[in-house]
Amino acid sequence: MRDIRRYWSEVRALETSLPEFVWLVDVEGSAPVEVTARRAAQLLLAKSHRLASEEELSVQRAKEVAAGKRLQKERRRKEGVAVVTPSGGDSQPISGN
């Protein structure tokens, strides 16, 4: 019983030292994931995850932006929306209003 109490005491102590949401990376190097401070404390204490570096976060953000642009481009292509340039170049989806 003491081990469980000590574990949750350590989780709560670590949780209070973290921001509300934390970016973590699996120790085997998966993509960063954003979790609550409580879940982060549990994963950090289990030593299965570590805090994500700024470089890892910027790479993840770039991937998310690129995926969003691809999704938007595909959605507009399906809707038949395209921009035709006067120079006769390739048509491109409209980006915004």
Would you write up a description of this structure?
This protein has 97 residues and is an alpha+beta fold. 52% of the residues lie in helices and 13% in strands. It has a three-stranded antiparallel β-sheet. The mean pLDDT is 86.
Strand content: 5-15%
Rg is 22 Å
> Helicity range of the residues?
40-55%
Head-to-tail CA distance between termini: 61 Å
Q: Tally of extended strands?
A: 3
Mean pLDDT: 86
Low-pLDDT runs: none
Query: What is the number of helices?
Result: 3
Helix/strand order, N-terminal first: HEEHEH
Number of domains: 1
Overall 3D geometry?
Answer: rod-shaped
User: Could you give the order of strands across the largest sheet?
Assistant: 2-1-3
- Biggest pleated-sheet summary: 3 strands, antiparallel
Structural class: alpha+beta
Features of this protein?
97 residues; alpha+beta; 3 helices; 52% helix
List strands and helices in order, with pairings.
Layout: H1 2-16, E1 21-26, E2 33-36, H2 37-45, E3 49-51, H3 54-79
Antiparallel strand pairs: 1-2, 1-3
Helix pairs in contact: 1-2
Summarize the structure.
Helices cover 52% and strands 13% of the residues.
